[in-house]
Predict the 3D structure of the following.
Amino acid sequence: MTDCFAALDEARRPWIDPEALKAKFLSLSTDAHPDRLHNATEDQKRSATAHCAELNAAYSCLRDPKERLFHLLTLERGAKPEPVQRIGPEAAGFFDEVSQICGKADTFLAEYAKTTSPLLKAKLLMQSAELRDVLSGLRHRLLAKRDALVEQTKALNLAWESAPAVGSSSRVNFLPCGRLEHLYRDLSYFCRWLIQIEERLVRLSA
């Protein structure tokens, strides 16, 4: 499999500064862009196009904290993490709340879609504003939790920086992959819930 860290000349580690990563990606992709190869052969242009696609895919992976952790765990262990099944302590407190508010929003949206009376629609719009306020408040708290989890990955960088070199058979024994997987799983829940909240906010605002 492609090593996205190697593709962007980045050391393997859980946390990467977003702005530094973006700057490196823009520099590499500009240098490799096929439009710069005015006198190149068709084979060279095809190779440059493929290289640019690889850089784009690597950047898309590494700039997303959840995807970056998944990719890092896969590289280090040689196998993909199991699908998220267990909910960790960071996410457990939000599980019921997210389910209930999304259920209320779905019920409201179904009722609103069936309503034809202008007067009833006007009354329902007031409920829509209340639901949006609740969803926006929950979204704000979920974002704060997601960002806090990402911040926790910074502390794990030292373990990756001090571990044996990539390719060493003992490398994985020095890495806190278990802790990283817990962070990845909690992060997966928060990212999924944020998408669900955003979808309902968009529909309520339409």
